[in-house]
Every structure is written in C-alpha cells, then in structure tokens.
Prior knowledge:
Elements: E1 18-19, H1 22-25, H2 28-31, H3 62-81, H4 91-98, H5 102-130, H6 133-152, H7 156-184, H8 190-218, H9 222-242, H10 262-275, H11 304-307, H12 320-326, H13 334-360, H14 370-375, H15 378-405, E2 409-410, H16 417-438, H17 443-471, H18 476-506
Helix pairs in contact: 3-6, 3-7, 3-8, 3-9, 4-5, 5-7, 5-12, 5-18, 6-7, 6-9, 7-8, 7-18, 8-15, 8-17, 13-16, 13-17, 13-18, 15-17, 16-17
Amino acid sequence: MGLGVLESKTPGHVPGTALLDQEAxxxxxxxxxxxxxxxxxxxxxxxxxxxxxxxxxxNWSFFQKHLVYFIICLGTIVQSAAPAPILxxxxxxxxxxxxxxxxxxxxxxxxLQLATAAVGPLVATLARKxxxxxxxxxxxxxxxxxxxxxxxxxxYNTLLANRIIAGMAQTAYEALVMACIGDLFFVxxxxxxxxxxxxxxxxxxxxxxxxxxxxxxxxxxxxxxHILVPFSAxxxxxxxxxxxxxxxxxxxxxxxxxxxxxxxxDKLGELARARKGPGVIVELKNVEWTSASESLSIPARKTMFxxxxxxxxxxVEDSVWxxxxxxxxxxxNVGGSFVIFSTGILFSWYVSALLLNSVLLAGPPYxxxxxxxxxxxxxxxxxxxxxxxxxxxxxxxxxxFLTRRNxxxxxxxxxxxxxxxxxxxxxxxxxxxxxxLQRGENVYLVCFVWGLLSFGVTVSNVSYFNYGLAxxxxxxxxxxxxxxxxxxxxxxxxxxxxxxSAASLAYK
Length: 508
C-alpha cells in the first residue's frame, strides 16, 4: 500500500490497487509488453487492459467513446437534471394559479424523489442482468411521456403524475452515467469525465432554474415543458440510433484493478508477446488465462444494426430475483457504504437548499418574482462550474503524482484527499446560507455562500464517485444506484419537515 493507506490483513489482491506508472515502479521488464497510454502518458499502464475484441468499449475510437458519453450526459440533462427543478423557481406562483397550498407544491419534489428511489433497485437489477442500453432507452421514453403530461397539465393531480413519471425516468441517468465512465475510460482518464458528469447531474439544475424562472413569470409555467419536449424527444432519438451497450464481459486477466496480481501481469505479458509472433491470433473471452498457447479467434466487429440491438443477452448468470435481493449487501461493505452515505447526504442538502430558497426568496424581506428567484441560482451554478473546472484540471494529475510517490502503484484512496477541501467549503457554505437567510442578509451574500456550498459539494462528490468507481468497478452499478436510492429517500425525508417552515416564512 503506502502513503497512509493501511495494508490489507487478508491475502490476495486488493480491488482497485493496480500498477499504473511503470517508470516510477521500474517495472519496464515486466510491463513493457502491456498496453500503455499515448503521448505524455506513454509510461502509464492502461487499467483495465483492453482486450483484442473490437467490440470492447475500451477499444472504441476517441470519437465513438465521446459520442456515447455525450448522449448519456445529454440524457442526464434533459431526462434528469432539467425536469426535477423545472417548476422550483415558480413554486409560489404555480401554487397561487392552481389554488393549492405552497406546501403541496413543495411535496411534488418529494414525490419525484420518492419515485426515483423506489424504482432504483429494479433499474439497477435489470441493468446488471441485461445491460445499460435497455435502461437508458426506457428512461428516455418515460422522460418524453412525462414532458407531454406536464405541458398538458391543468390541475395539481396531473402535475403529480408528471412528477412521479419524471422521477422514474431519471433513475437510470442519475446513477448509471457514473458506471458508464468506468465502462468507457481508463483509470487515468476518469477525473475530468467524472467532473463533467457531476456538473450535468447537479449544477445544471441551477441553470434550469435561471431559465425556467423568467419563463414562468413572462410566459407561464407550461412553456417550460413546451420548450423541454423537443430536447427530450431529440435525446430519445439519439439514444435509439447511436447509444450502444457499454457493458462488456471481459476476461478477468485484463482487469488489473479488480483481479490483478503479479502472476496475471506476467501472463498478460506472455499473451502480448505471443500475439507479436508470426501468424498468432489469440483472445481471451470469459476464461481464465493459463498459458500463452491457449487462444481464441478475435471476434469480428459488430454491424451498426447489431450494436443498436435492444437485447444483448445476459451479462451475469444470477437470476433477476437473486440480484435484486443481493443489493442491500452493498451496505455491508464499509467502503461502499461510505460512498453511498457521503454522496447521499451532500446531494440531499444540496437539493433541499434549492427547494427552500425557491420559497424563502419569494417571501419577505426579498419578495422576489419567479424570474428573480431563478436568477439567484446563478451563484450555485458558478460555484459548480468552478468546481468542475478545478477537478477536471487537478484530479488526474494529482492521482498521477501520488502514484509516483507510491512507487508507481495506484490506490483508490488517492481519490479522497481532495474531498476534505470540498467538505470544508460545503459545510461553510451550508452554515453561511442558513445564517444569511435567517437574518435576511443581502441577496448577493446569499448567492455567494450558496455558490460556496455548490463548489464544495461538487468537489467532494467527484472525489467520492471516483473512489467508488476505482475501488468497486465491478459493482459500480449497484453502488451508484444505491447511492441514488439513499439520497432520494433521505431527500424526501428532508422535504417533509422543511416544507412547513418554508411556507410560513414565505407568507409572513
């Protein structure tokens, strides 16, 4: 281990630990035949090692990887991040128009979170069994349906139906986007992509608030759904035509992070040298490597029609019921529980602050319109954007620095030190936001501390998710889905006691 990471007391490989920097490890004799990064990263051993199969997502071209990543991020925006806060800035105005209490309007967000949490385990089970593409397709379709219901809504109950369906639609995009980063990118490439994914998952909500507020004031809240429908439909079409399955059953010998060992590195080197021999074509698929002479033919690249199939077979042997019932077991893992509870608590307070401010800023002493409430979200939006740039610039170099200091060996815990800085900023911003709102301080101060909270939450969660992906990549779907389930159930619990005080303060 090293650099403060405790040694494991159990024999065998520790998941996530991998030889990453061959120069720092002085392992050129053993790892020179393995696949490495390009350019300035030519000394970085690719973790996990890509197979020889052209259908392996790790072997896809730069363009194809980032096209898939773009479609998933776009889905996260229009099917998850945008629908959730689309009514938040106009909470008081919409409650007045529908002649319902503000507390009932606040409940709508709680019901959305409840729906997301309730279907989370089922989505995760099916995604693990049959892959992520069916989950994304179903979520995008539900998102389009929810938008259509929203733009046709004329009463509270129809809006409630919209919120419940939208909550079900956002489950896959809220959690599986993190797992897809592990499917598409190597360990040394994930930092900036994770930062962008966290930005579209969380910070985009504030951008939506800025846009939706003035639209609600000037055109009416229905126009928010009118504008969102074409984007949602466009993303659904992209998903159908250009989003292939990213789950791939790779032989364990290539997974240096989850099943790596000195023996397997040596065998993988033997395999690489054997491929360089004349007329030798070898490939491992779902078998353990035992000798350099054991080989299989390299599969042909799938056609476009084959890649876009909805059903791609089963990716695990376990039954659906067994997978579903095993999900709570992730809480028995200390590291997994840490990721779930840490990200869940931060996200929940993050969303609750947005919901509370939408009501408090509409009441005395601010008396903001829906448009002005939306503009106040500029503070947290800027905070998240700065955090995204900060983590995108520093995350991977920081990991490489610690790996060099650790004689070339990467540890998942190297992702965590930056979270301490984020936690300090998040706690300071949360306390400052509560204090400034309670005392009715200047709105610019409110926006600043709100932005500080947003910055801290984004920095911390990028660190936590990167750690979870590095340490538990094989179970990343379960880990991130359970994190989504916890934060939405916890967030729903936060809404219940807060809604009454919010409503009363808004009408003093």
